[in-house]
Amino acid sequence: MKYPLSTYRVQLNSTFTIKQLSSIIDYLDTLGITTIYASPVTAAVTGSTHGYDVIDSGILNPQITTWNEFEQLSLELKKRNMTWLQDIVPNHMAFSTENNRLMDVLERGELSPYYTYFDINWNHPEAPGKVIVPILGDELQSCIENKHIRFSFTEQGFSIILYGSHSYPVSTSALSAILLAMFEHGLPAMLIDKTEALITTAKGKNLVAWTFIKKEISEEISAAGYLPSLTAFLQMLSDDTAFMMDFFQKQFYVLVSHKVSDRVMNYRRFFAINNLICLRIEDERVFEDYHRLLLELYQKDWVQGFRLDHIDGLYDPLSYIQRLKQATGDNCYIIVEKILDGDEELPETWPIAGTTGYEFLAFINRVLTDQAGAEALLFFYKEFTGLHEAYETIVYENKHSFLYKYMQGELDNLVALLDKLFLLKDGIDAQSIKVPLGIFMASFPVYRIYPDHFPLPQIEIQLVQKAFDRSMVKAPQLKKEFDFIKELFDESDTDIAGRKLSFIKRLMQFTGPLAAKGVEDTTFYVYNPLISHNEVGDAPSPLTFTADEFHKKMIRRKLQTPFSLNATSTHDTKRGENARARINALSHLYQEWRALVPIWHTMNGMYIQQVNGRSAPSLNDEYFIYQSLLGSFPDALVADEKFIERTRMFLVKALREAKAETTYEAPDTKYEEACLAFTEAIIKSDSVFLTSFIPLLKKVIDCAALYAIAQIILKASAPGIPDFYQGSELSDLSYVDPDNRRDIDYDCCKDLLNKIIDKENTGSDVLAYLKSHRYRGVEQLFVTQKMLLLRKKYPDVFLYGAYIPVKTDVNVLAYIRQHEGNAILVLIPLSIKSQQEVDVKFSKITVELPANVSVQWKNIFTDETVTVRDGKLYSVFLKFPVAVLESISE
Question: pTM value?
Fold first, then answer.
């Protein structure tokens, strides 16, 4: 297997296509990138900005590439010895009229070859034999009466037009109602015959043949001149409410209000998103159909690896990975998107290289946060806001609340499955088990476990026990029911072990989404002591750990998942890595922050409004706003119109995700507008607030600049593969998506990199240039290239080399990567308020180096030769605030 030395994540869409990607390959190669890491390339809904809403996995997305363009890019990458890591989406597709497989299911029901393709419960008591389609803005009858639902006839046959634009098929099962109406109204025999033909020819046809038949019939009707009379007839039927209501009883799907999905649902959704329908990828036929193009790209050697999106959504992740591995062979680099909580580890049985690296983000986020400062900030946050609930309590409450508000249908389905599998026993029925099952799901300590056989691994048994213990604390009176749930994870009753396994595998498909929505998309906008840790993969509890703890994590990473990605930002992270570094800097400047926030609250009180008897913004939201501004305020220190608009969009999303004062379903626009007005008022150019905010921001920027480059060094030198999200090689102050998916100014990136290279080639003072242009992120670009070129020079050191912690007499994170005769020494100062402090505090440091390494080193950033004398390093940070030293052979 050829492992990447580095990856560069690109978000492909209609504004950044394969053709445009091709134009920056030379730049990325010069930067030192070895692998392009691409968002999905299969066909997605029109206008998709991310590609995860797949409509056809069998074709390339015409919005981003042609077959020839992809081939030419592949050839160019091979010339440069670069590879391609492809993101794929095995869990779900778009619930869209553009999804022909799904529309065929809605049209032909059991006659469709895709009838079992999607994860649909066809026996749901609310809609037996039908798919629930929650798309309407009101009840069905009201929509019919208000003419929001109309019949139409196109080259795809009879269809239903919703709200004048969405075209859904008329099911073949309901064509008989239209056919009968044709007879009754004396329509021409040809129309009757052709309509009857659609009913009789639907069986046994693949999608291509069926589409051709419909088109052929449509053309015959049009050629005979009957289209106007057919259209008039369909409009007459559309106006007949009684007919329409009867007609919809015969469809293979039922149109309902979008609000219904909160309490009734019969297809599995990605999280709680109605327009993403999940697949039965565990079915071998579905697997083969869905992966046909992707495997062809791999076999052509246009793709050398796969990133598996949302592995936690699959019914049987191990079997899926094994099937993919069997199809690709041993040389395919495969990683999974997986959030590991705390000390959680990947299952040992998974034949993969590792994860996408969210856990690494947490490791460096915590080690670069000052422990004393973080503790002081937590205390101050509670004091200022009056919110004293523990983080774990808030997480539970938000998960439990989300389950009952937005996933009650899924909970009911799980209870029904227990009954269907005959797992309920005396004294435990469907009614009595629903509440305890919901508590157990909300108490689950990780996203999910992976039960594929009994007995479960000991670590999974421990996690189940933890969920049980937490549940008992919440509702001790339900012990009998919790005992029953815990027994489901036990193989002791062999007669029903298979049925138990089926249930808990299904259960795990929903604990993951519940955790994501309750934690990432709710709690991370509610619990705000230091929002840089409200991040995918990380958590605001604990906020820090020591250098020794970091070393232990890295030693374990080297042993277990040395080829996982080391990510510091992705398309899913809550803010750009420079914004996160700035907010983390508050832990080093906590005294200034603690002094200023109460002053700001008093100063800005004139902008706080009263909305329905409550302050807008609330103290918690005000605290969140101050941190968010500190993280993303422009480096130029002026809030221009573009930044204000970006901030407005971000705040509306953040407030609604928090679900405390407003929601997407029931937006309190008065509260939202009051918060937006507050924010705009305090950052306008003549604001008194800025007179104290900007001086603090300058200190924060200076402090964060050190930790921004420290992040790059750590991810590029610690065990794992460094991953760079598009544009993060420069300063990235983005908010959450869609803000972090804006187009990148690659002309600027190229220009700055060329200037750095030119200055190095001409002997100019590169370090002075970096310092004077720090606000543009040029230091980061410089450090990124130096680290990536170092990885290219010593690939074995970084891929296979030992990780050796180095003790120092000062607060410096130090370690060596060593392989055979080559060694790299990394030195990162910690607990520093400004870059000026570095050489003052660390002008001389004592290091305990292993006996078998050189005492002569070269600083890759300054080109200085450094000698270890009597175990001491002198003035190593004099010219640059961090150090990466390359051993010199003696």
Answer: 0.96
